[in-house]
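Ticket #4471: structure output looks truncated?

Reporter: J.K.
Steps to reproduce: submitted the chain below (122 residues) through the standard prediction queue, then opened the result file.
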Amino acid sequence: QLQLVESGGGLVQPGGSLRLSCAASGATLDRYAFGWWRQAPGKEREGLSCISRQGASITYVDSVRGRFTISRDMMNNTVYLQMRSLKPEDTAIYYCAASYYCSTYVADFRSWGQGTQVTVSS
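Returned output as attached by the reporter:
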């Protein structure tokens, strides 16, 4: 079973940066595409970004494009989300998830991490 553990969240001021990490274990990483999602209280979970099995195909939702960067390191079995120019509306729990192909549907992602809290506030 693929296991995912997010880390790197915390409190940051508006305009600041954070890098989230997703450590994967228990399965062959190159079988999966990886996505980053977030969910704020009272809101639906939204997909932010996805990186393909080969790592060459990358997608971003409009609200984070140009500010967030997704990447993967096969040697370290880790997926990253570099976040820059953070805004208060970015405050949410951030989740890493794995699927066979990148998708905008929550149900297509087979494995999820426990989430890491990101709070953007002055």
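Triage note (M.O.): checked the attachment and the full token line is present. The CA atoms of residues 69 and 82 lie 5 Å apart.
Status: closed, working as intended.
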